[in-house]
Specification:
Layout lengths: L2 H22 L5 H58 L1
Pfam families: YtxH
InterPro entries: Desiccation-related_membrane, YtxH
Protein name: Gas vesicle protein
């Protein structure tokens, strides 16, 4: 996990904890409090899913760049090797 991901996870955990504490200490009925807590947790889950999807897309893009770079370098080495073999 890189530093940015750790910061985002810590931020989301802090927000969830703050929201949960705020809801639990609010002067609402038990049913209302549970509904609010449930909604807050659902929202947190949705934001985590969105962040995970973004990170997966970033990783897929990085993988494509790395694979492309490796293929380009391999072609270059193959061409140099075949040129050396032809001139030998």
């Amino acid at each position: 996990m890189n530093d940015n991901s750790k910061v985002v996870v810590a931020l989301l955990a802090g927000l969830a904890a703050g929201a949960a504490l705020g809801i639990l200490f609010a002067p609402d009925k038990g049913d209302e409090t549970r509904d609010k807590l449930s909604q807050s947790l659902k929202d947190l889950g949705d934001s985590i899913k969105d962040k995970a999807a973004d990170e997966i897309n970033n990783l897929a893009s990085l993988k494509d760049k790395v694979v492309s770079s490796i293929k380009t370098k391999l072609r270059s080495v193959e061409e140099e090797y075949s040129d050396d073999v032809e001139h030998a």
